Amino acid sequence: VIPPADYLVGFHHGSYESIYDTFEKMRQAAGGLLDEHDTIGDEALTVNIIDQLVEENRDSFVTKVMMKIYH
């Protein structure tokens, strides 16, 4: 169960090995999106949208990434 909260949401396209690049890009983008007093949590929730069960090519995986916003 995903706890109710405000989340910064993005999508990672590619293998799981490169997902940390997406985390960093989302943190950088948050600086221009959030109010001055808001922060992004260190943890990220991930949900596989397209994974190894439906796609052989790891570069075609899609993962939903959610980072909690603290007000």
Outline the secondary-structure elements:
Elements: E1 7-13, H1 19-33, E2 39-40, E3 45-50, E4 62-70
Quick recap:
With 71 residues, the protein is α+β, with helices and mostly antiparallel strands. It has one helix at 19-33; strands at residues 7-13, 39-40, 45-50, 62-70.
Q: What would you say this structure looks like, in words?
A:
The chain is of the alpha+beta class. The protein is 21% helix and 34% strand. It has one helix at 19-33, and strands spanning 7-13, 39-40, 45-50, 62-70. Strands 1, 2, 3 and 4 form a four-stranded antiparallel sheet that branches. The protein is elongated and about 45 Å long.
Point out poorly predicted stretches.
Answer: none
Q: Helix- and strand-based class?
A: alpha+beta
Shape: elongated
Largest sheet: 4 strands, antiparallel
Give the tally of β-strands. Answer: 4
Q: Roughly how much helix do the residues carry, as a percent range? A: 10-25%
The helix/strand order is EHEEE
The Rg value, from CA coordinates, equals: 13 Å
Strand percentage lies at: 25-35%
Counted by DSSP, the helix tally is 1
Q: End-to-end distance, in Å?
A: 21 Å
The overall pLDDT average reads: 95
